[in-house]
Amino acid sequence: MDEAELGGFLDLAYGAAAQAALWPDVLERFADMVGAEGAALIWQDQATRRGRGIVTQVDPEVLPAYFANFARRHPSQRWTENPAERLRHFVPKMIADDEALPKAELMRTAFYNEFMRPFGLHSVMRLGLSAQGLDAAVLVLSRPASRERFEGRDLELMTALHPHVIRAFNLAQALGRDRPLAAAAEGVFDGSGAAMLVVDRLGRVLRVNAAAEAHLAARAGLRVAAGRLSAPTVAQGSRLAALVAQAASDDAAVRRGASMALASPSRRLPFSITVTPLGGELSPIVRTPRAALVTISDLEADVDLPQLRLRETFGLTRTEAKVASAIVDGETPREAAERLGISFNTVRGHLARTFEKTGVRRQAELVRLLARLS
Q: Which residue, of 39, 108, 158, 240, is most buried by count of CB atoms within 10 Å of its CB?
């Protein structure tokens, strides 16, 4: 391979670190350079065996078939041997399929005959790239039965390029980690009067707005210990951790939001803690970590109900909005009349028109509606 070809590949690989859309081109170029007829880049949870990835120059159904039916049936069974411990000592090696299991033995397995052979996978080389938690990323190169195994010059070139692909891939991960923060850092997050924190699935705090900083400083509810969100009691902490793990799960079937009450001996009412999934779908290449938005509601705080918003949303007059705000604040119509300096009958008239404009029939319904608006 000449210097210009090598330079072109390296430019492409390191360019893909910033532009994930270039990774299929990287795989295709790499496969061509080392004489492979197919390539796949895979992120896989080594405990559950679920994963995602991209392929080039091979049937695109190969990955769905693998993860749906064959990921847990690989004959070497290496993944069953304490994956967490193995990944703690992860070294990005190059391993041929016949190094993991003799080829003659592999060819007698259902894994080979029902999965590899139908997709034209005979000789396979796995290049380790990265490990984070229980996830590992590998680059898989393949040849059909009509070709010899990877060796000689192709293997030497693969060995020389492997470190560059590792560095480009890890750089892509580093650039992708801040994406949930970018989504959360919009003005609505930083400027919100509600206390909000962004955490990863392990409860590590990624971002805090001003209202949440004030809540944490008061030490009346949630706390941060060693960089992780925690609660005053073990039971509350376990419940919070479960909600965060659920909201930030990679599994769409598990991922959902939920709420909990956080009681405190010094308070009459608990804090309401709502945990919501944050972020879009994962990139098949960039391991953008799932994140969760934790919102803290103080049930003892006065309801902040901007009167201008009432007028704009429901077409209330200025006085109708004032009366509605007083009712939401817990005042009776007589108390509202006294404070606003108007008659009781005038307040009743304003309430009747407010009911009509908002579509409610009773005072309790109005309170619920306007509390949701706040």
A: 39
